[in-house]
Amino acid sequence: MKEIRTEIVIDAAVNEVWSILTDFSRHGEWNPFIRKVSGELCQGAQLQVVLGPPGKRAMRFKPIVQLVEPEKAFRWLGHLFVSGLFDGEHIFELETAGKNATRFIQREKFNGILVGIFRKSLDTDIKSGFIAMNEALKKEAEKSSRQS
After folding, report:
1. Buried b (16+ CB within 10 A) or exposed e, 10-33
2. Spans of all domains in the chain
3. What is the pTM of this model?
4. pLDDT attached to residue 3
5. Which of 84, 82, 44, 49 lies closest to 64, judged by CA?
């Protein structure tokens, strides 16, 4: 198993950050990593996701939503071709970090026989994608917070 974890503090309320994060129709406008998401955010639903670190080729996959806790967390589980080869559970978590501040945590747990082959790319490309998305979410949420 391999896990990547990033976090950032955003100067906006949890409900605002959640609203931006879960408005899948707008990801293409602000998100440099998860470029497109479609589908319903409910446990058991299949999403269609296009993601890739900035400057890298995007991948398309169809993860299944594992958990939805409004204004707290959601997770999806995706597979490369078949389960057990290269699986990724992507986890988004939001925590209150003070008055009108949110700690956004983005993690992914990778499992499968191909994880070792992709280990270096996960530590560099995928982690840089997480960081780029975190910073873009912060910018979008703080801009939205200032306007309200």
Report:
1. bebbbebbbebbbebeebeebbbb
2. 2-147
3. 0.90
4. 85
5. 44
